[in-house]
Amino acid sequence: MLIEKISPYSLYKKIIKNYSKHNNFVIFKKPYDKKVFFYSHHHSVGEELFLIKNFNHDYTVKIYPKKIYYVYIQEFQRKKNKYPIFYEKNSSFLTYSFEYKNLIKKAIENIKKGFFKKAVLSRSIKIPFRNFDFKNTFIKLIYSYPNAFINLWYDLHHGFWIGCTPELLMKCHNKKLKISALAGTIWGSNNWKKKEIKEHKIVIKYILDLLKSYKDKGTFFIKKTKIIKIGHLKHLETSIFFSFYEGPDYYEILNRLHPTPSICGFPKKESLDFIHKNEGYQRNFYTGYIGIVNKKKMELYLNLRCLRIKEDKKEITLYAGSGITIDSNIDQEYIETENKMKNILSQLIFK
User: Fold this and answer.
1) Residue 82 pLDDT > 60, yes or no?
2) Which of 82, 87, 205, 273 could form a disulfide with 345 if both were Cys (CB 3.0 to 4.6 A apart)?
3) What CA–CA distance (Å, rounded) separates 75 from 73?
4) Contact predicate 124/97, CB 8 Å
5) Cis link prior to 146 (omega < 30° from 0)?
6) Is 131 helix (H, G, I), strand (E, B) or coil?
7) How many Cα atoms are found within 13 Å in the side-chain-facing hemisphere of 63?
8) How far is the CA of 289 from the CAs of 8, 47, 52, 61, 165, in angstroms?
9) pLDDT of 97 above 90
């Protein structure tokens, strides 16, 4: 695959050219990386692609680049935002939702009845806009969240999506596999409680149970749980590694792995049924996965802390969710979704 360094100006020209032709493209930065990559779709199928899958597994976007371009992030000029943070100026957009609180209550009641142990519920809000500043919002995100996977992609049928996800789904190269368990969120001066720790352990157990089905094909090891910080939010993260004796079918593992209990629940079938019957909206690509795939490796992230932008309707849709367990406090779960929305709302720049 040909790779070429370009200037930010050349990157902007390529983005505008592809958008004007309604051609799919993506720009992204991997966690802690110093480069922003650009892929635009070419009709011939190459050896590498950017893969985007929705939550329901019934829609896939594949961007096959003919050539990969990149820009060093220090070449982007960071614009100082002289205006108030968007959500502080427009806090009314975070409208109170009795429906969502009732949904959390219903999930807790179902957990107490023993139907499932955890369900990750989510909601969306829509906000209108006149002129959205794509360029400076993206630049602000890459500087604000260096440890996140920052992405902006365009598809003719689904418009623009922007995200800054902290959660790696899986990363593999040859015989080495890494899966990340990320669940349990606090903010401010709150301390970790039994709820967050139990919620996190459900995700770890799910991943380990899946990997144990490959126990005759390799060995695994678990790293110590650590705390990662994305803006004002803190999450528990545990990395799990598996070394295969021979290269496995990573697509088969991916299909069994997703959706994990960090974005769906546990057991999978029962929690997924509850989500489909009760959540009341389509997640689309929120909590799906996105990332790079080629013959030798995959690097896929869950599509979190994201929003969809409809230029034709001048409308932004924001998404956020939280993991509900038997120890959940309804008010705290509700506030968690507000805080996750503020996590990305605070980065948006409008002209």
Assistant:
1) no
2) 87
3) 5
4) no
5) no
6) coil
7) 28
8) 27, 20, 6, 11, 10
9) no
Which stretches of the chain are assigned E, i.e. beta strand?
A: 2-5, 25-29, 35-40, 48-53, 60-63, 67-72, 118-128, 149-155, 159-165, 168-173, 176-187, 218-222, 226-230, 233-244, 265-266, 289-294, 297-302, 306-310, 315-324
Cβ(246)–Cβ(175) under 8 Å?
yes
Q: Rounded to an integer, what distance in angstroms lies between the CA atom of residue 28 and that of residue 36?
A: 6
Summarised one tens digit per residue, pLDDT across range 24-74 is 999 999 999 999 999 999 988 788 999 999 999 999 999 999 999 999 999
Q: What is the pLDDT of residue 92?
A: 62
pLDDT in tens, 304-347: 999 999 999 999 999 999 999 999 999 999 999 999 999 898 89
SS3 269: helix
d(C-alpha 304, C-alpha 183), whole Å: 12
- Residue 92: helix, strand or coil by DSSP? helix
Contacts of residue 211, defined as CB under 8 A and 6 or more positions apart, other chains included, come to 179, 220, 240, 242
Helix (H, G, I), strand (E, B), or coil: what is residue 238?
strand
In terms of DSSP H, where are the helices of 122-234?
A: 134-144, 194-212
Residue 210 tokens, joined? 């899946």
Residue indicated by tokens 């139990």: 198
Summarize pLDDT for 223-274 with one digit per residue, the tens: 999 999 998 999 999 999 999 999 999 999 999 999 999 999 999 999 999 9
- State the pLDDT confidence band at 91, using cuts at 50, 70 and 90: low
> In the chain, pLDDT over 90 holds for what percent of residues?
87
Give the 3-state secondary structure of residue 140: helix
Contacts of 217-226 with CB under 8 Å at 24 or more apart are: 217/244, 217/245, 217/246, 217/248, 218/175, 218/242, 218/243, 218/244, 218/245, 219/243, 225/200
Instruction: Give the integer Cα–Cα distance in Å for 320 and 316.
Output: 14
Identity of the residue numbered 305: R
